[in-house]
């Protein structure tokens, strides 16, 4: 099977994440898209509790419920250790040798990937689908793809994605001020945030 990988903290998961997964699924003929919430991201200082992690996981469950090709994968949901992309992708290739993996990332990440830990080890494990936002120059994206391909043998393809000015930070801010987040997140997620009084401490965990 062809499997798309969507990693992140998903704090909370929002419409932009889901649309990116949907576009990747349709445009590249994927069989499934796996959402991997990260329990302890190495690039962020987080004081995430086990309860907060459980909330993030449950919101993903609610967001993708009823979508048969979206899956929740908890491989990286371990707050006791950092999860690195190269380790996860190497593990998936070992665990599921019958699958072909496509790692979905945003345009900004494509330009900063050389700063990732052991980034070279990622390229043999998957094809990267780089989401090209409307505000990014196509020629600039293609130059970066050619550079990474020539320098490291990376397999990268452009993923056309809609430009949505939605961020988890903005959602948390609105929720902290008792403002609605409907249409920024799926309705079940908005209801979950409201019912569980999430993000009331106003802490910025972007």
Q: What does this entry look like structurally?
A:
The longest helix has 15 residues, at 50-64. This protein is α/β, with parallel strands linked by helices. The protein has helices at 15-27, 50-64, 85-95, 107-112, 138-152, 168-176, 187-195; strands at residues 2-8, 32-37, 70-72, 100-106, 127-132, 156-160. Helix content is 38%, strand content 17%. The protein has a six-stranded parallel sheet with strand order 3-2-1-4-5-6, sandwiched between helices.
What is the count of DSSP helices, taking H or I runs of 4+ residues?
Answer: 7
Percent in strands: 15-25%
Q: Main sheet: which strands, in order across? A: 3-2-1-4-5-6
- Alpha-carbon distance between the two ends: 33 Å
Nearest-integer average pLDDT: 90
Q: What is the H/E order?
A: EHEHEHEHEHEHH
What structural category characterises the helix and strand content?
Answer: alpha/beta
Largest sheet: 6 strands, parallel
Q: Can you count the beta strands? A: 6
How big is the Rg?
17 Å
* Overall morphology: globular
Low-confidence stretches: none
Helix content: 25-40%
Task: Describe the structure using short key phrases.
six-stranded parallel sheet; alpha/beta; 206 residues
